[in-house]
Amino acid sequence: MNCIIIDDEKNSVELLKEMVGRLPFLNLLKSFTNPFEGLEFIQSHAIDLVFLDIEMPMISGIEIVKSLRNKPQIIFTALDSKHAISGYDLDATDFLLKPLSFDRFLKGVNKASQMHRLNEFAGSSNNHDKNSNLDFILVKTGYNTIRIDLDDILYCEGLKDYIKVHITGKTIVTLNSLKKFEELLPDDRFVRVHKSFIISLAKIDSIQNNRIVIGKSIIPIGDNYKTKFNSKIRQ
């Protein structure tokens, strides 16, 4: 895992560097005492994990994470546990209280490593041919990567940066775009019918004018999607 350290305290940086050096699966690319330089590095490099101090005078670790569009895994460090809730609200992998102990550091890093392996597996599983025989996809939600069986999906609903995957019995929320999610689904079983909706063809109960009924849900058919949808229905 490629990682960096951002902490304005040199002693903390040196301690983290020593701890990182003990673990062969961590590759420390760089360390920063200037948080703005660290932020610029994250935005221009492929980073898997950031050890990030929350309490810095120029810009806080919280503000750094909020400014990122593509977030690597974050392990926050701080002197005061009062910041822990803010860290977890940003989906941080872990929160380490200073002074750091190696045992607690190792626990956080092992959690990050497990998530990294799951995300790699999810990526390799989802980059399959859309008409392959895979009958499930892997989706990240919160701190977990979960399996969703394709047969269980009723429809998917796009909401800005999030997607609601409506499946039999419940709804799963994941951070993704509907366009990217559409690429994961086999196009012989799913079709986009609206800028905000993808439906499972097998789950259609009825079609009423420009609306699709799936269970108790009524889904509109967008003007730009009618031709493709009608073609799928004929097939």
Fold topology:
Blueprint: E1 2-6, H1 10-21, E2 27-32, H2 35-44, E3 49-53, H3 61-67, E4 73-78, H4 84-89, E5 94-97, H5 102-126, E6 136-141, E7 144-149, E8 153-159, E9 162-167, E10 170-175, H6 178-184, E11 190-194, E12 197-200, E13 206-208, E14 211-214, E15 217-220, H7 226-234
Parallel strand pairs: 1-2, 1-3, 3-4, 4-5
Antiparallel strand pairs: 6-7, 8-9, 8-12, 9-10, 11-12, 13-14, 14-15
> Please, what is the average pLDDT?
88
Low-confidence stretches: none
CATH topology of the largest domain: Rossmann fold
CATH architectural grouping of the largest domain: 3-Layer(aba) Sandwich
- Briefly note the structural class of the backbone: alpha/beta
Total count of strands: 15
**What helical percentage do the residues reach?**
25-40%
For the sheet with most strands, the description reads:
5 strands, parallel
Question: What would your notes on this structure say?
Answer:
The protein has 235 residues and is an alpha/beta fold. It has two domains: 2-124, Response regulator (Rossmann fold, 3-Layer(aba) Sandwich), CATH 3.40.50; 136-234, OB fold (Dihydrolipoamide Acetyltransferase, E2P). It is 32% helix and 33% strand. It contains seven helices and 15 strands. The protein has helices at residues 10-21, 35-44, 61-67, 84-89, 102-126, 178-184, 226-234, and strands at 2-6, 27-32, 49-53, 73-78, 94-97, 136-141, 144-149, 153-159, 162-167, 170-175, 190-194, 197-200, 206-208, 211-214, 217-220. A five-stranded parallel sheet has the order 2-1-3-4-5. A five-stranded antiparallel sheet has the order 10-9-8-12-11. The N and C termini lie far apart (46 Å).
